[in-house]
Amino acid sequence: MLRTVTLLGATGSIGRSTREVVAENPDRLRIAAVVAGRDAAALARIAVETGASFAALADEQAGPALAEALAGSGIACGAGRSAVLEAVSRESDIVVSAISGAAGLEATFAALTPGRVVALANKESLVCAGAAVMARAKAVGARILPLDSEHNALHQVLGAEPIEAIRSMTLTASGGPFRTWSAERIAAARPEQALAHPNYAMGAKITIDSASMMNKGLELIEACFLFGLAPAQLEVLVHPQQIVHGLVTFRDGSVSAGMALPDMRVAAAHCLGIDGRLDAPPARFLDLAMSAPLSFERPDLVRFPALGLAIAALAAGGAMPAILNAANEVAVAAFLEGRIGFAGIAGLVEAVCAGPGAGLSAAPDVAAALAIDHEARNRARELLSRAPFAVT
Ligand SMILES: NC(=O)c1ccc[n+]([C@@H]2O[C@H](COP(=O)([O-])OP(=O)(O)OC[C@H]3O[C@@H](n4cnc5c(N)ncnc54)[C@H](OP(=O)(O)O)[C@@H]3O)[C@@H](O)[C@H]2O)c1
Q1: Distance (Å, rounded) from C-alpha 17 to C-alpha 210?
Q2: What is the pLDDT of residues 69-126, one digit of tens each?
């Protein structure tokens, strides 16, 4: 059966992985609509290549450039919030949610319609509004499949086991480029060093989050909502080879591991194979005899304080994960612009999380989540303009 896919974040790293899997399976999958932020030339090229019938950019200013690039192609297009929501509302069996950051929340939420599969890479949707997103999926009868590799592995390992069968879940982390660095060296890291991820070529925001290990913290929060576990049931192990993506420890002491090569096309293929598994090309198969010895270590929360902040936000609950996420997005952007040093990322997040917001309830819907996000961003920007988060 031919299944149709709406691809949110089509020009990004997950967008590319998804397009490759779709192209490998032309008899099973077809892209119906593509969405990106502002890169009109890239989106137009992708729309033509994939045979999409609709293309949307979030940035209204980029609309004319997209229309010009698609003139004569027969592909309809639009720009701005309403165009993104139109793309999501067009018929498709699967929506791949791979916009980066909290900017992906509204479209992810709108994608949850009866019978649909939402392949969720945009972890920030669950961090900002986990309860509301999961409740919406349940209420309308949409299925969320995790595309994040750790959660995808855990989802597959879990299979039909009830949540009561689980004692704990472990998410693995590569440890990023600074795994073996001293705290002083990490604090002085430059953007190009933080952008050099050892295993994955990803978007800039998630790559910086991997270097600070905030990414693993966001993933813990994501897992909590996705699987309905208590925060104390989730842990992180640093595993530099990135072969084991997740471990489920059952109540009887059995441990099952989800393994694959560190290649996002594997998780994407699992999410897209909704009528049965897709065939992968030979290079995507794991040969354990050929892999480096697998090693595991506990994360160091002193050298990677961002992970500790995320764990604390998860424990605090309410609006705190959304506040943490907003502050982190502002801090990562400031680091990439050279306005703060690497240590300033966790410093700014900590300062925002310590401000007003503690005790605020979790957002019951998208509008409330966006309001919390907006407020926390404003606070982060205000602190940035006056606090000593100077480049080190
Ligand atoms: N990359 C990975 O291996 C990986 C693994 C697990 C989870 N994830 C998650 O997947 C998501 C995407 O990550 P990525 O690495 O693919 O990021 P990326 O390479 O930076 O791509 C981001 C995509 O989002 C689009 N975008 C940005 N702002 C937008 C907006 N306001 N509205 C609509 N589209 C917008 C970008 O379009 P433009 O190009 O036009 O700006 C681009 O298509 C993140 O939530 C990340 O945490 C990624």
Answers
A1: 19
A2: 999 999 999 999 999 999 999 999 999 999 999 999 999 999 999 999 999 999 999 9
pLDDT at position 388: 64
Q: In terms of CATH architecture, what is 317-392? A: Orthogonal Bundle (1.10)
Stated length of the chain = 392
Say which amino acid occupies 355: G
Coil, strand or helix at 35: strand
Q: What is the Cα–Cα distance from 38 to 264, expressed in whole angstroms?
A: 23
Q: Read off the tokens for 226.
A: 């996705």
pLDDT for residue 112: 98
CA–centroid distance, 207 to ligand 1, in Å, is: 11
Contact indicator for 214, 313 with CB cutoff of 8 Å: no
Whole-model pTM: value is 0.97
In our burial notation (b when 16+ CB lie closer than 10 A, e otherwise), range 212-226 reads bbbbbbbbbbbbbbb
Torsion angle (degrees, nearest 10) of CA 258, 17, 271, 32: 180
281/174 Cα distance (integer angstroms): 25
H/E stretch holding 97 reads strand 94-97
CA-CA distance, 261 to 153, in Å (whole number)? 11
Sign of CA dihedral 359, 362, 366, 367: negative
Distance 388 CA to ligand 1 centre (A): 30
Q: Which two tokens stand for residue 380?
A: 């982060």
Tokens matching residue 302:
């002193």
- Domains in the chain: boundaries: 3-147, 149-261+286-303, 317-392
Contact status, residue 106 vs residue 370, Cβ threshold 8 Å:
yes
- Sign for the CA dihedral angle at 207, 209, 212, 216 comes to negative
Q: Tell me: domain 3-147, CATH 3.40.50.720, correct?
A: yes
Q: Separation of 254 CA from ligand 1 center, angstroms?
A: 36
Which ligand 1 atom is nearest residue 122's CA? 45
Which helix (H) or strand (E) is 20 found in, with range?
A: helix 13-24
Q: Is the pLDDT of residue 30 over 50?
A: yes
